[in-house]
Each structure stands twice: as C-alpha cells, then as structure tokens.
Amino acid sequence: MTWLTTSLPPALRNSWALTFGSGIEMPTRTTSTVLYDLPHRQLRRFDRATPATGNPVLLVPPLAVDASCYDLRPGQSLVQFLLDTGRQPYVIDYGRITAEDRDLGLEEWIDDIVPTAIAHLSALHDGADVDVIGWSLGGIISLLTAADHADLPLGSVTTLGSPMDFGKNILLKPVRMFAKMTGGREITYATHLFGGIPGFFVQAGFRGMSLSRELTRPLFIARNVRDTEALARMEAIDRFIDAMPGYPGRLYRQTYRQLIVANQLARGQVHLTSDRSIDLTKLSCRVLLLGSNGDTLAPAATIAPGVEILTGAAEVEFASVPGLNHLALIAGPQARTTTWPIIDEFLAR
Predict the structure, then answer these.
(1) Cβ neighbourhood burial of 38 (10 Å; 0-12, 13-18, 19+)
(2) What is the arithmetic mean of pLDDT over 68-91?
(3) Could you give the CA distance from residue 242 to residue 28 in angstroms, rounded to a whole number?
(4) What is the spatial distance between Cα 90 and Cα 45, in angstroms, rounded to a whole number?
C-alpha cells in the first residue's frame, strides 16, 4: 500500500493521505533531553552536536498552548533556527491543564516555574545570564518575572505578540466595556463551574479568531491539492490547535480582570492580589518587543507602548513585521526571514 500511494500523482496521493491515510506529514520534533520533570514544569534541552555559543536561551510558552509552538515542524521551528545559529535552546513544558489545577495562579509561574528554570540553566552554564523568549502570555509572564525578581541571572527578555496595552485593541473594547458593567462575574462563574477554561473552549476560540481560515479550508485544500508543503503546513496547524490544553481557573481570572479589563500592564503596576503588586519599572535587563499589524489578537499597537512602560530596562527595542497573524509571528513559514533574524541580531548584541 505504501508503494502504491507513493507512486500516485501528488494530487491523488495528498487526497488519499487527508482522507484515508495517516496524514500528509508525520509530526517531527527536534530531539531533546529532559533535565527535570515536575508537575507543569518539565524542562527540556534541545540536543546539538557541537558546543553552543552565547547565553543559553529559555523558551517560555503561553498557557493553553502546547510547547511545540516553538518547534512546529521542519522549516517552522524557532528551536532549529536557534540551534543553526549556534545557540543552546531549552523549553519549559507545562503539560496538560485540568480542573484539578483550578487554584494555580500567575504567581506559580512568576515565583516558581520560570525563575527555577532560569536559575537551573544559569548554573548549568557556569553562572551565565539566560536569554528568555516568550510568545503571547508567555512573554507577559517573562516580563513580570524579570520585574519581580531582579536577582535572577537574566540577560534579556524577548516577547512576540505580547500586549502591553490591551486598551489599544479595538476588538477587545466591547469585551472590556461589558466586563466593567458586570464586574467580570461571567468569567468568575464559568471558571468556577469548569475549574478553568477547558481545552475545547480554547481550541474553539483559536479557530474562531481565524474564522476565514476555517470557512475556506475546503477551498484551500482543493486549490493546493498538488502542493504537499502547503497541505503539510495546514495539517501542522490543525494538530497544534487540537493539542491546546486549558487555562487554570485562578490564572485566567487574573489575566482577564487585571490584564485585559483593568489594563494594569499599561499602567506599569500589576496587582496580583490585594497585597501583592509587580512594578514593571523594576525590570532592568534588555528587552525586545516584537509584534505585527496583521495580528488581530495582539496588534502591534498594543505592544509598542512597552517602550514607554519599561523605563528601568537597560535597553528596550520594539519591532513590527508586516502581515503576520498571532501564530505566524512565532512559527509561520515567513518567520525565518522576518521575526527570527530580528531575534538573532538582538541576541548577538
């Protein structure tokens, strides 16, 4: 059967793979070694054959996203790019988030998960500073960690698609206005009922933000039935979305109330609890903020204000690349010639 399908013309072979076969392309991940494996904080080192140069690089994923966002597939892997440019990347993998994790909050990541990984990597590299890269909420968590733990051996923080001023997202204005009228009770009830935001809600929301992609999927397949690479990219994104876990209840309430509705990042002070706040002006390492005007979830306009907010940073650079959506910013085929070279140049400095 394998010989038969490989001998078929590309259009027939791809049609068979999408319908009756195992898919266009089997998932391929860069080989890695687990350094420690604790609940919601597995730390992995990506394997390389030659000695690395520069600081170790820690990849911090957002919540409700699989860690494969940094290693989606060949040609769409920031991990492989970092390896190819001589660096040593690591990633934190949170694993599955379930209703049992309802009480986990941002503090778990800011005070434990991310700082522990940074300290561990610095010790492995003889006390070297660690360069952190975070996508979406992973970038926000990285900035809050750097601001609240000035003693960490941090060389830099790079964020991709991480809003600093949610008030500048036009699509969120109705949500923020409604939440201010209700006090955010709709999210409180939902997260208490489900113990958080279940994975299937996250997956549906991500697909909803790319509704045109979902609606035109049959047409896309028909037009690209001979283009194995295009179909492989589509399939990789579908698998990525299907693997999205959920949010812990407490963390999502904090994100919704403090970050989205109250817009506390834009004010430079994030109040995690009534007696705990984080002052973003205390962040002192170098920072690179990356965004895109094609990102509806986190438009470049919501990211640029970070230059004025992070006043204590040794250096803050903002860069916008045209036309990339939220996922493409970190893992799209265009990232190799847009966002990744900017990161490479920033880290090299």
Answers:
(1) exposed
(2) 96
(3) 16
(4) 5
Contact between residue 283 and residue 138 where contact means Cβ atoms under 8 Å apart: no
Ramachandran category for residue 86: left, alpha or beta (phi over 0 → left; psi -120 to 50 → alpha): left
Which residues are CB-neighbours of 309 under 8 A, at least 6 positions away?
164, 165, 265, 266, 268, 280, 281
For residues 127 and 122, give the distance between their C-alpha atoms in angstroms, rounded to a whole number: 5
pLDDT in tens, 50-76: 999 999 999 999 998 889 999 999 989
Q: Please, are residues 40 and 97 in contact by the beta-carbon 8 Å criterion?
A: yes
Taking each helix axis from N to C end, the angle separating 10-19 and 228-242, rounded to the nearest 10 degrees, works out to: 10
DSSP 2-18: HHHHHHS-HHHHHHHHH
Tokens 């250096």 correspond to: 315
CA dist 115 and 43 (Å) reads 12
**pLDDT tens string 100-127:** 999 999 999 999 999 999 999 999 999 9
Q: Which residues, in sequence order, are CB contacts of 50 under 8 Å at separation 6+? A: 86
Q: Quick one: pLDDT band at residue 44, thresholds 50, 70, 90?
A: very high
**Of 312 and 245, the one with more pLDDT:** 312
For residue 317, list its beta bridge partners. 288
Which residues are bridge partners to 135 per DSSP?
A: 160
The span from the CA of 289 to the CA of 1, in Å, is: 50
pTM for the structure as a whole:
0.90
- pLDDT for 253-274, tens place per residue? 999 999 999 999 999 999 998 8
What span, in angstroms and rounded, lies between the C-alpha atoms of 327 and 253? Answer: 23
Instruction: State the residue for tokens 């994104």.
Output: 237
For residue 272, the one-letter residue type is: L
Report how far residue 92's alpha carbon sits from residue 70's, in angstroms, rounded to the nearest whole number: 11
pLDDT of 3 = 43
